[in-house]
Each structure stands twice: as C-alpha cells, then as structure tokens.
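Lecture 7, part 2: worked example. A protein chain together with iron/sulfur cluster.
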Amino acid sequence: MVKYKIELDRETCIGCGACTVACDNFVTDGDKAKVVKSEVDSLGCNQDAADGCPVSAIKVTKIE
Ligand code: SF4
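Predicted complex, written out as structure tokens:
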C-alpha cells in the first residue's frame, strides 16, 4: 500500500503559519510549525501545505 512521508524542516521554517491554515496535519509549535502525523495513507491537504510554504520547508515523499 502506498503511503506518504511528510517532513518539515524546522531549521528552514520561518513560522508563517500558512501550513497550519492549509492543512490540519500541521500545528504551531512555539515560533515554528510541526507535523502531526509524519506518515499518512493519502496525501490530501498535505500537498497543499507543501506547495504553499514560502520557504519550501515541507517535503512530501511517496513510500511503498
Ligand atoms: S508554511 Fe512553511 S514556513 Fe510557514 S509555518 Fe509552515 S513550514 Fe513554516
């Protein structure tokens, strides 16, 4: 079954909050954001969050 790995590079994140608005798999953590579930069965809004990140801190990888 296909799964997706969701990673957020906290070094790169500038804490703009866009991903937390775009997708409920991202929450605010201090002055940055973090991923709630790092492995998901369907991409859903995670791709929207990755596409909308202004510093490309979110990486989506397909895993088998
Ligand atoms: S959209 Fe990108 S820069 Fe903004 S909070 Fe999320 S990960 Fe950080």
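The longest strand covers residues 3-8. Residues 23 and 46 are 6 Å apart (CA to CA). Keep this in mind for problem set question 3.
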